[in-house]
UniProtKB/TrEMBL annotation:
Keyword field contains Membrane: yes
Protein name: Uncharacterized protein
Transmembrane segments: 6-26, 50-72, 78-102, 123-147
Swiss-Prot/TrEMBL keywords: Hydrogen ion transport, Ion transport, Membrane, Transmembrane, Transmembrane helix, Transport
GO biological process: proton transmembrane transport
Keyword Transmembrane among record annotations: yes
Gene3D superfamilies documented for this protein: F1F0 ATP synthase subunit C
Amino acid sequence: MTAAWLFTSAAIIAGLGILFAFKQLLRGLSYRMERKEFNQQGLQKDQTRYFIQVALFEAIPIFLLVLGFMFMEDNEASLVSLSIPLIVILGIILICISQIWSSKQEVLSHPDIGKSEKSYINTIVLIGFSTILCIPVISIVGIILLIN
């Protein structure tokens, strides 16, 4: 049972932490569009800051995942005992998806957005989905492996 909660903790920390960094990135992009400073150098700076934050937010969850896989052999759990951690992780995934979607719509509702800005934001959103949801998906796989 310890492994399931380690996986759940990793998903919560990574999902919400990286979501915070992603929303900060989109706020920065929106601010750049308002000030008409949507240039390559500024975008690279924002992306670099985002990926550094992702690395920092993923450090502890990766350690928790490793611990969870180490404690996996000690646990004999049924589907009923693993249902609460699975529901929590699925809830985190749904919260993250809805927050990403609402942030995207908020940025794309800007009146002066061009075609290149729109495609850049769509690319950033896809990167956001993959960075935010990777640890929760790995946690779900770990919990599924715990089922006897």
